[in-house]
Write a structure and sequence with these properties.
alpha+beta, 2 domains, 415 residues, five-stranded antiparallel beta sheet, single chain, C8orf32 fold, 31% helix, elongated
Length: 415
């Protein structure tokens, strides 16, 4: 559920500033005749961008309406499109989703203004996100602090947001800087050029950015049908870095997030020799043995005292995982290596997500959805077997089918 913050102006609420306004970043600006070239380190890749030197001229930071308007207009008087065009070029070239693009904008502002406080850089991020077409709102607090909000249609949990005329705006500044804003009185100034934009801020990840991998090799060991199985997988750890402060969204978003190209290729290659001669149901039995036995199980509520779902990529590198995490891994295994139809089932009050697969023959008690019999292939339970058709909890629990994947049903591996 969305959380609405209570409003106060207590002195203690200002303590979040300690970690919020000091970032120590080296500046790397090379000069040319018409522009200045900046070097941006974006995770595992280095990007070159151009900017108008006039952007570096002192622009007074403030939070009043008139001053914010002057701030915005002074940037607009420069040849800001030099930098904007490069940002948009890299958004397309690197295939960045909206959050990854916002991070690129922030890292760019940090590089250009290394000695300025994050409030100052937030105002510049507001300018460039607005010019990039997003529906933006800049809020201020206590006449000192700036916070960039972006309109989103996604369900976001445990994250600061505001509701404006029925629309939800996510506080991306606080999420990026991991700042605690609870108790701050947020005030929206009248000058809001982003209100004319229609682009919403989406948190869906259809692919990871097209940047060089940073590989670690992990060995997995488990038993399947009394046989010891071992194989190694090259995992791209850039994915973990990209998701380190990602906004908390609903579970299906994590489940649908694909593997990186490097990890998918390596995992498929490692698994294929073990399943290539198996019947399709035996392939799934191998998958559940892998997901049940190769990872240590621990519930999020015990580890974090809150729900913290992982993507399949994160599950592979994590030391522990639970139902949601392994469902994400199972989703990718079935999607990438078979052509089976399957569903993702969420038990609404138990933090349990399981998988149902359509086989020609049903194993165990069928899970019936829209007249189709599915075999439960739970990726977590029972822990000591690869048997199919076993439910994680009782059938009479409240549940919801949160995803239905229809593929052409054929036995065997995809090409």
């Amino acid at each position: 559920m969305r959380t609405t913050y209570t409003i106060s102006t207590s002195t203690g609420s200002i303590l979040f500033i300690l970690s919020f306004f000091f970032l120590n970043i080296n500046n790397a600006i090379a000069y040319t005749n018409a522009s200045q070239e900046i070097t941006i380190q974006y995770y595992s890749t280095t990007l070159q961008m151009d900017l108008d030197p006039a952007m570096l001229k002192k622009n007074k930071y403030c939070t009043s309406q008139l001053c914010l308007e002057n701030f915005y207009n002074k940037i607009e008087e420069t040849n800001y499109k030099l930098l904007l065009n490069d940002l948009l070029k890299y958004r397309e070239k690197l295939q960045l989703n909206d959050w990854f693009y916002y991070v690129l904008v922030q890292k760019t502002m940090e590089q250009i203004f290394p000695k300025k406080k994050s409030m100052y850089r937030t105002n510049y991020a507001w300018f460039f996100m607005t010019k990039s077409g997003y529906d933006t709102r800049l809020y201020t607090a206590q006449n000192k602090f700036s916070f960039l909000y972006l309109r989103t249609d996604d369900e976001v949990y445990e994250m600061p947001f505001l509701k404006v005329n029925g629309d939800f705006y996510l506080d991306v500044t606080s999420i990026y800087y991991k700042a605690k804003t609870k108790g701050l009185l947020m005030e929206m100034q009248k000058f809001q050029p982003g209100t004319l934009n229609t682009q919403t801020f989406s948190l869906k990840i259809n692919n990871y950015p097209d940047i060089p991998p940073m590989i670690v090799t992990k060995e997995f060991s488990f038993t399947h049908q009394q046989k010891k199985i071992k194989f190694q997988v090259d995992i791209d750890t850039v994915a973990n870095q990209l998701l380190s402060n990602y906004p908390f969204v609903k579970a299906i978003n994590y489940i649908e997030t694909p593997l990186t190209k490097t990890t998918k290729k390596s995992l498929t290659k490692a698994i294929q020799p073990h399943i290539k001669n198996l019947e399709i149901e035996d392939q799934l039995s191998f998958f559940v043995s892998f997901s049940r036995k190769a990872f240590e199980f621990k519930n999020d509520q015990i580890r974090f005292r809150r729900d913290k779902p992982l993507t399949a990529e994160q599950t592979l590198v994590a030391s522990m995982s639970d139902f949601e995490d392994r469902a994400a891994l199972m989703y990718q295994l079935i999607l990438e290596t078979t052509e089976l139809n399957f569903i993702i089932v969420e038990y609404l009050y138990d933090d349990i997500i399981t998988v149902g697969v359509e086989f020609p023959e049903v194993f165990g008690k069928p899970f019936i959805h829209q007249g189709v019999n599915y075999t439960i292939c739970d990726p977590s339970m029972p822990t000591n077997t690869g048997k199919l058709g076993i439910y994680p909890i009782n059938l009479d629990k409240d549940f919801e089918v949160i995803k239905e994947v229809m593929q052409q049903v054929e036995v065997g591996m995809k090409d």
